[in-house]
């Protein structure tokens, strides 16, 4: 394409015929028409149909066998109550902790977890807490102070924090959703709502909704994307999107919740795990993915990270437009050069005619 273009430009600048100039203009306008389509082919987060649901990592109504069958793929602990309609991690009572954990380690390299949840209670504005955490961790069923799970965990956590502990952090509104990746060395600081260790986050109105509320976590090719669907519009809204995230296979999915002096019902309606069909290089496939140490390579403004080769599977609309504008500028540059070159060439020839 580039070769073809330079050839046409070269011949057009020599201005041997006007038809070549016409061909050039036609070619350039074709480019301009085709380019926006090229930048828009990247898919968005799955709607849950196109990809593959993995039943062994999914928690789906009516939660058959949980707590009664030894072959059940989910264990629960603490205040957790399993009914046929929801899994209640905590009731709307003080000082409760509960969790539910997948018993099957996940060996998918690329996955997407859709969580339907419901946080509701009688507490009025700012008088409710503490929230839910969704886990993908090395260990399971280790109760502790981080939304009912252990501190110094190893793996990924998503916090749906409904109570503001840090009164200095007034720049963000609560409930607040944030992500944290830990190799076991970092503590979660409740007093600061995890601000020191968070990779990204967003505010979202998730309490006492009459409609269904959802969260999606996608991990693929080093990129962690979190989307929320909490406004009853049936569409995903981006909350977190960062590259350079390394997570191993063989960890466990789980959910936990806690109440303190303030409380809420913290319910999980479903957790649906989808395998993503993603190609990996033979080099990547030959690695032992269970040995990967959880880490994040870009802690500073990870949202700006678009050059990371491990994390660019999904071009954001902004990136697409940047590329488009860049190419547009390049094309305009070529057109200007061609016209200027042609004019200069013609002037010279006229001068040549005059003097010889
Ligand atoms: C764990 O993470 C911290 C920072 O997040 C890092 O300084 C440390 O080297 C890591 N430890 C291991 C064993 O990877
Ligand atoms: Ca909090």
Automatic annotation (TrEMBL):
The gene is LMAN2. The keyword DNA repair does not apply. PANTHER family: VESICULAR INTEGRAL-MEMBRANE PROTEIN VIP36, VESICULAR MANNOSE-BINDING LECTIN. GO terms for biological process: endoplasmic reticulum to Golgi vesicle-mediated transport. This is Vesicular integral-membrane protein VIP36. It comes from Osmerus mordax. Residues 51-276 form the L-type lectin-like domain. It is a single-pass type I membrane protein; Single-pass membrane protein. The keyword Metal-binding applies. The chain crosses the membrane at residues 323-345. GO terms for cellular component: COPII-coated ER to Golgi transport vesicle; endoplasmic reticulum membrane; endoplasmic reticulum-Golgi intermediate compartment; Golgi membrane. One of its GO terms (molecular function) is D-mannose binding. InterPro entries: ConA-like_dom_sf, Intracellular_Lectin-GPT, Lectin_leg, VIP36_lectin. PROSITE patterns: L_LECTIN_LIKE (PS51328). Keywords: Disulfide bond, Glycoprotein, Golgi apparatus, Lectin, Membrane, Metal-binding, Signal, Transmembrane, Transmembrane helix. It is found in: Endomembrane system; Golgi apparatus membrane.
């Amino acid at each position: 394409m580039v070769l073809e273009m330079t050839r046409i430009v070269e011949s057009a600048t020599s201005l041997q015929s006007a038809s070549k100039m016409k061909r050039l203009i036609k070619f350039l306008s074709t480019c301009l028409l085709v380019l926006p389509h090229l930048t828009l082919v990247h898919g968005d987060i799955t709607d849950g149909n196109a990809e593959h649901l993995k039943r062994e990592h999914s928690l789906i109504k009516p939660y058959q066998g949980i707590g009664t069958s030894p072959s059940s793929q989910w264990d629960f602990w603490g205040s957790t109550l399993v009914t046929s309609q929801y899994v209640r991690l905590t009731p709307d009572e003080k000082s409760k902790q509960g969790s539910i954990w997948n018993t099957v380690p996940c060996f998918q390299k690329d996955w997407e977890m859709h969580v339907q949840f419901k946080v509701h209670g009688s507490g009025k504005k700012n008088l409710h807490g503490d929230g839910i955490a969704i886990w993908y961790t090395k260990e399971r069923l280790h109760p502790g102070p981080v939304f009912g799970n252990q501190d110094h965990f190893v793996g990924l956590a998503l916090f749906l924090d409904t109570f503001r502990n840090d009164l200095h952090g007034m720049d963000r509104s609560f409930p607040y959703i944030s992500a944290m990746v830990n190799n076991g060395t970092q503590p979660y600081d409740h007093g600061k709502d995890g601000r020191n260790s968070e990779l990204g986050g967003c505010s979202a109105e998730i309490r006492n909704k009459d409609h269904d509320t959802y969260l999606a976590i996608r991990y693929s090719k080093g990129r962690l994307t979190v989307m929320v669907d909490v406004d009853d519009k049936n569409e995903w809204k981006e909350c977190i999107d960062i590259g350079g995230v390394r997570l191993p296979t063989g960890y466990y999915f789980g959910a936990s919740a806690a109440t303190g002096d303030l409380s809420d019902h913290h319910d999980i309606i479903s957790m649906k795990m989808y395998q993503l069909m993603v190609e990996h290089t033979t080099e990547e496939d030959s690695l032992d993915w269970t040995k990967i140490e959880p880490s994040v390579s870009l802690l500073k403004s990870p949202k700006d990270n678009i050059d990371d080769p491990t994390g660019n599977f999904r071009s954001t609309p902004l990136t697409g437009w940047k590329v488009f504008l860049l190419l547009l500028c390049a094309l305009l540059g070529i057109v200007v050069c061609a016209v200027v070159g042609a004019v200069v060439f013609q002037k010279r020839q006229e001068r040549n005619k005059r003097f010889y």
